[in-house]
Amino acid sequence: MTQVLRQLPPQPETKELLVGNEHSDDAGIYQISDEIALVQTVDYFTPIVDEPYLFGQIAAANALSDVYAMGGTPKTVLNIVGFPIKKLGGEILTEILAGAQSKVIEAGAVTAGGHSIDDPEPKFGLSVTGVVDPKKYWTNKGCKAGDVLVLTKPIGTGILTTGIKRLAVTDKQKEEVIASMSMLNKQAAETLQPFNPSAVTDVTGFGLLGHAYEMAKSSDVTLHLSYQSIPLLSGTEELADAGVIPGGSKANHLWLQEAVHYDPALSKVEQLILCDAITSGGLLVSLPKDQAEEYLEAMHGLSLGAWMVGEVTDFAGYSISVKA
């Protein structure tokens, strides 16, 4: 998509557009007054689980996450539906929409409508509009040397969902990955509000290293990650060792090969895990060390996951460096 966008003529500069697509941010931000800016995003995909209600929940959580990653509050959503209604009937679509609505309500937002087309392959997602203070929003640019990196959900959803399709996961592993993907980043973002993060993104299709690369590149720094510090969903390593790795994760690994310096002790499988194509992952946050420690304490006090996974230095020849 980056290559495609480069072919377009530049659009007129608009001072109200505070965040566009210059740095592959999670959402756009458009200022409408001194106190309010709109946060806008859209995301949709094909089913990754068989249960329609759960698919709706996951798709909604994934789309809402972009607003949380910008420091915003979701307000309205529009459903985006591609569905073979004559082939599958309305009951399945009703379940998908009901699952999504449950997460929209949990987010404190409302569904304002949507659009559907007849499509041989089901697709579903949301266009989300939120609000944020135009003087206090987050982007994926601004990591500072001396910051530490915090991650708020385990990785491995791409590998686990591929394992679900291949009937290679346990019931417990399936429950864990679905719970992770359907969990909103609402509390993680709200708990972060009193702090001053240098940069924030959510971890989705480009994987942990892909989104870390976008942060590092836009900030002109190096992010140093420790594999042993990064939380993994149970079963991730075993499935990856057995070759259960989605094509998107392999594509991410290939895309990043010139940008990442891997510790020689890291296996190819471990590298692929770090590049796993994630659905509805957590927030990756760069913030000063003292604030990071307070944030971790606050998250753990709410029984929420949060892990210190690395640190930021001045640019050291690679955007990303990973030690075993």
What's the CATH H-level superfamily name of the largest domain? PurM-like C-terminal domain
Q: Compute the gyration radius: what is it?
A: 19 Å
Share in β-strands:
25-35%
Strand order of the largest sheet: 8-11-7-12-9-13-10
Query: What is the 3D shape?
Result: globular
Can you describe this structure?
With 324 residues, the protein is α+β, with helices and mostly antiparallel strands. The protein is built from twelve helices and 13 strands. The longest helix has 18 residues. The mean pLDDT is 96.
In short:
By secondary structure, the protein is an alpha+beta fold. Helices cover 37% and strands 25% of the residues.
List keywords for this structure.
12 helices; 60s Ribosomal Protein L30, Chain: A; 37% helix; 6-stranded mixed sheet; 324 residues; Phosphoribosyl-aminoimidazole Synthetase, Chain A, domain 2; alpha+beta
Topology, element by element:
Blueprint: H1 2-6, E1 17-19, E2 28-31, E3 37-45, H2 52-69, E4 73-83, H3 85-88, H4 90-107, E5 110-118, E6 123-132, E7 147-151, H5 157-165, H6 171-182, H7 186-192, E8 199-202, H8 207-219, E9 221-226, H9 236-241, H10 247-255, E10 260-262, H11 268-274, E11 283-288, H12 289-301, E12 307-314, E13 320-323
Parallel strand pairs: 4-5, 9-13, 10-13
Antiparallel strand pairs: 1-2, 2-3, 3-6, 4-6, 7-11, 7-12, 8-11, 9-12
Helix pairs in contact: 2-4, 5-6, 10-11
